[in-house]
Specification:
Layout lengths: L2 H24 L9 H17 L5 E6 L4 E6 L7 H15 L3 H10 L2 H8 L8 E6 L2 E9 L11 H11 L2 H4 L2
Antiparallel strand pairs: 1-2, 1-4, 3-4
Helix pairs in contact: 2-6
């Protein structure tokens, strides 16, 4: 084999290996997601806020795909709040919007609630997506704080927002 043929063979092999590694890298998805530490911090802050206001909440934080990262169930919380808080977080993560917005839309489209229920989502306020650099990295759902304050804001939403506020510095990136 001549030196030029050997050089050409090495270059061809290098090009093939480069294409092979590039195509395998192109098939890998890298999505930002909320860390366990951030999820725990947000859930604890939301839960503590509700407890301070006299409620016995359950708070769930999910990742961007709706997989549970952490769930805090207060002493004396209603048993159904476990599932409800999870579904609020799941809905906020999958729909990429607060469940209070979905709840308001449900007033104009009553069949929306039935459809959401059928697929495991919920149209109750208390679920809020968590954003990092304009991407949803998770969501928080609070259940067990019924009613609203004097400004008409639901207590579940107030607690969930408080949880997100507790990690706001980390979310600035």
């Amino acid at each position: 084999m001549t030196k030029s043929n050997l050089t050409l063979s090495v270059l061809s092999l290098t090009a093939l290996l480069s294409m092979a590694s590039t195509s395998s890298i192109a098939n890998v998805v890298n999505e930002p997601t909320i860390s366990l530490d951030m999820a725990l911090k947000a859930a604890k802050a939301a839960n503590d806020r509700c407890l301070k206001d006299g409620f016995k909440p359950t708070t769930t934080v999910v990742d961007q795909r709706g997989q549970m990262k952490v769930q805090l169930n207060s002493d004396g919380a209603f048993p159904h709040a476990v599932e409800t808080s999870y579904r609020k977080a799941l809905t906020a993560a999958s729909r990429r919007e607060a469940t209070s917005i979905i709840e308001a839309e449900n007033e104009h489209e009553p069949q929306l609630g039935a459809v959401f229920n059928e697929i495991g989502l919920i149209t109750l306020s208390g679920g809020i997506p968590i954003y990092y650099k304009e991407q949803v990295i998770g969501a928080i759902g609070v259940a067990g704080a019924p009613g609203e304050n004097d400004e008409g804001i639901e207590y579940d939403d107030i607690c969930a927002e408080y949880g997100i506020k507790s990690i706001s510095e980390e979310l600035k990136g």
